[in-house]
């Protein structure tokens, strides 16, 4: 492996946390600067909630960003008379359809109403990270790689359906080769990724699920099982994504909401069906998941799991920890992708 010769800031942005790794070529990877911080949607959500509790109106401005805590707070407080306005780009963080956003009671405007608390949207918190790095005397790198879970722009289709349809088409177009997980540059429909590229045009951007899987493959136990077949599960705070892989070939994939799998205990059944090639897209989608796509059966020699909900979801699976740090699996996937595509 040819390691990069320059520092790289690697950020994996999930529903609950943003996991950050500063790769530096002059020290062992284990000594890298690492941070696990609240996700931007969580930070924004709490800021909206604080204003709502004080009876203050809020104006959102900035690029589209991921939902989660922010949309939950908005949906909770709007029926209570909470005053919310947003620029068109920021409003797309609530829903891709601006007419629907207006129907919720959100005013779409470029100008903040008098007295409104202005809250910035966006997945890449550059100013805040620069301030943190400066506090510790760390030079901010020029190279950037970011992973987000982009559902894609789908104003007239379920974003669950659109996201998985795009993933399936991407795999089929790439003949189910593992490199088909890498979109560089991403499709025009991936608006969150492009919002980052609008301000950081040289950045590498990719999907969080793909980054986690490619990162888990950096674990030596997982890597050794790869040729015989391996099932890799990323049990994130919001979503669970599972792949069956044999060598460089992806055999199948499904994506679901972690909370649903934890509540109904169906993860093992889904994994068994994924491995034997019988899992259907409708089965997962109708269970409030995103979907499934199966290329062929895969006799996995190992089930490996990563992500913050790994112990609860599949407790008897191998706990993948690339370079000894499970929470940074996505960052290591970003790093391996950078090495493959940028060096």
Properties at a glance:
343 residues, alpha/beta, six-stranded mixed sheet, five-stranded mixed sheet, 14 helices, 15 strands
Can you put this structure into words, describing what you see?
This protein is an alpha/beta fold and 343 residues long. The chain has a domain at 1-157 and 188-219. Helices cover 36% and strands 22% of the residues. The strands form three sheets. The protein has a six-stranded mixed beta sheet, with helices on both faces. Helix 1 packs parallel to helix 2. It is globular and about 65 Å long. The protein starts with 7 loop residues before the first strand and ends with a helix. The model has no long low-confidence stretch (mean pLDDT 95).
What's the story with the biggest beta sheet? 6 strands, mixed
Shape designation: globular
Q: Termini, distance in Å?
A: 10 Å
Q: What is the averaged pLDDT score?
A: 95
Helix content: 25-40%
Strand order of the largest sheet: 13-12-11-10-14-15
Compact summary:
The protein is of the alpha/beta class and 343 residues long. The protein has helices at 40-53, 69-77, 88-91, 98-103, 126-135, 159-173, 191-199, 208-216, 220-225, 258-264, 267-276, 281-285, 310-313, 329-342, and strands at residues 8-13, 17-23, 33-38, 58-61, 84-86, 107-108, 117-120, 143-148, 204-207, 230-235, 239-246, 249-257, 291-294, 302-306, 318-319.
Write the layout of secondary structure elements.
Layout lengths: L7 E6 L3 E7 L9 E6 L1 H14 L4 E4 L7 H9 L6 E3 L1 H4 L6 H6 L3 E2 L8 E4 L5 H10 L7 E6 L10 H15 L17 H9 L4 E4 H9 L3 H6 L4 E6 L3 E8 L2 E9 H7 L2 H10 L4 H5 L5 E4 L7 E5 L3 H4 L4 E2 L9 H14 L1
Parallel strand pairs: 1-8, 4-5, 4-7, 5-6, 8-9, 10-14, 14-15
Antiparallel strand pairs: 1-2, 2-3, 10-11, 11-12, 12-13
Helix pairs in contact: 1-2, 8-14
């Amino acid at each position: 492996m040819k390691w990069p010769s320059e520092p790289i800031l690697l950020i994996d942005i999930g529903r609950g946390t943003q996991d950050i790794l500063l790769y530096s070529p002059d020290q062992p990877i284990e000594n890298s600067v690492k941070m696990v911080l609240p996700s931007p949607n969580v930070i924004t959500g709490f800021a909206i909630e604080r204003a709502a509790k004080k009876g203050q109106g809020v104006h959102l401005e900035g690029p589209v960003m991921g939902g989660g805590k922010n949309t939950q707070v908005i949906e909770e407080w709007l029926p209570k008379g909470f005053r919310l306005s947003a620029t068109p780009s920021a409003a797309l963080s609530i829903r891709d359809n601006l007419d629907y956003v207006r129907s919720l009671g959100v005013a779409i405007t470029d100008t903040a109403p008098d007295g409104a608390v202005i809250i910035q949207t966006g997945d890449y918190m550059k100013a805040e990270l620069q301030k943190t790095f400066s506090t510790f005397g760390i030079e901010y790198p020029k190279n950037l790689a970011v992973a987000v879970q982009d559902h894609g722009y789908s104003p007239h289709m379920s974003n669950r359906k659109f996201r998985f349809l795009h993933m399936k088409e991407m795999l089929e177009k790439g003949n189910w080769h593992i490199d088909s997980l890498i979109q560089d540059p991403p499709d025009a429909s991936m608006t969150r990724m492009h919002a980052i590229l609008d301000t950081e045009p040289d950045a590498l951007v990719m999907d969080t699920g793909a980054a986690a899987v490619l990162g888990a493959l950096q674990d030596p136990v997982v890597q050794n099982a790869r040729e015989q077949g391996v099932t890799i599960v990323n049990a994130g705070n919001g979503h669970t994504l599972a792949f069956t892989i044999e060598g460089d070939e992806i055999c199948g994939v499904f994506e679901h909401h972690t909370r649903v799998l934890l509540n109904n205990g169906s993860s093992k059944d889904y994994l068994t069906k994924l491995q034997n090639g019988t899992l259907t897209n409708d089965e997962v989608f109708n269970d409030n998941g995103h979907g499934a796509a199966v290329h062929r059966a895969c006799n996995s020699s190992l089930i490996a799991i990563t992500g913050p909900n790994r112990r609860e979801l599949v407790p008897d699976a191998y706990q993948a920890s690339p370079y000894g740090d499970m929470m940074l699996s996505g960052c290591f996937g970003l790093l391996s992708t950078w090495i493959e595509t940028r060096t």
